[in-house]
Amino acid sequence: MQPLQSKLPWVGESIFSKMSRMALEEQALNLSQGFPEFQPPSELIEAIHQASLMGKNQYTPMPGTPELREAIALKELQIHQHTVNPQTEITVTPGATAGLYTAIQALIHPGDEAIIIEPAYDSYRPAIELAGGVCLPVQYNLTDFSFPWDDLTAAINEKTRLIIINTPHNPLGVIFSAADFDRLYQLIENTSIRVISDEVYEHIVFDGQTHSSILSHPGLKSRAVKVSSFGKTFHSTGWKMGYLMAPADITQEIRKVFQFLAFSVHSTTQFGLAQYMNAHAEWEPSLSDFYQKKRDLFIDALGNNTAFKVMPCQGSYFAVLNYGNLSNLSDQEFAEIVTRQFKLASIPINAFITEQPVTKLLRFCFAKNDDTLLKSVEILHRISTQYHD
Ligand SMILES: Cc1ncc(COP(=O)(O)O)c(C=O)c1O
Hints:
Elements: H1 15-25, E1 29-30, H2 42-53, H3 66-80, E2 90-93, H4 96-107, E3 113-118, H5 124-130, E4 134-139, H6 149-155, E5 160-166, H7 178-188, E6 194-198, H8 218-221, E7 224-229, H9 230-233, E8 242-245, H10 248-261, H11 267-279, H12 283-302, E9 309-310, E10 318-322, H13 331-342, E11 344-345, E12 347-348, E13 361-365, H14 370-386
Parallel strand pairs: 1-11, 3-4, 3-5, 5-6, 6-7
Antiparallel strand pairs: 2-8, 7-8, 9-10, 10-13, 12-13
Helix pairs in contact: 2-11, 3-11, 4-5, 4-10, 12-14
Bound molecules: pyridoxal-5'-phosphate (PLP).
Pyridoxal-5'-phosphate binds next to helix 4.
């Protein structure tokens, strides 16, 4: 028998699994994988439990329960002033990753090109390739984290069908402004390019700025899919709950794929989320403050007198540190040494980049208890004074 030919020959163990495993082996503090160290709201947990006791345990309608889609549409209106039709424009998915996969399968045909902006969340490229598409990465400027407008412009051609953007950005913490969306629109308005906007950190934006969504742009809205995750919003990444918003014609195609991918999503969690969201309008608007305090605690405790350079973070729950003053090792090597010798796990930025340039950047997740953050900063101080290649 012929050996099975891999559809994704370049894919190995994800860096997130690797660093979390290493953190466990080394009993290191784990600021690598992006998950909160705190519980979801207890009333939400209780609402899900009650939904199960009340018998809400069977298949829900394919695109999600009407209650949850209506709750999502209401939030979208209250927080972002977007009108989204819950019947025809919202699809609940088992996490944003499955939502991204579904949307990419619906939008990409064999031979189509899709542009991603790296560093990029690791599911974009495999999903494009599994749809038979060609993934073309262009790269943020890794010195000042500016958006690569010239490279994006140069990468667009008649085969381009899709651009995927991410705001607030994992791992760089940069955000797209309304002017950026204008600029993107000007680039593609005379093409049939669609845009997936990964906005899973939409409620985590700092320093008085507000989240600018692709759905706010009148020109882009008709060609956009917005991706969201309840995991990020309700400290519940393990529940794998998310949703897609797109105009009815795109949603129709998304749902055709979704019907055969999962058909529907965990029932009781949908009922619980709808109930909690309707009763707690204050939750999402409180997140930016909550995480800004975490960011500031981490960065202020680190201070300006270490060998690390703190890169600016406008949103998401990740801080990026440049260790170029300390070591000539690649970020992958340096991250491993820091985990094994100093017991602090992070994620090397080159893990998010296809071409693997040698960066000197590590990502730290600050969605952690204050005590964990302060202990991590103590370790960073130690590395700063004690480490030599
Ligand atoms: C940019 C980005 N998109 C999507 C996801 C996936 O979200 P989910 O856990 O809901 O699949 C993540 C999770 O880390 C992310 O950082």
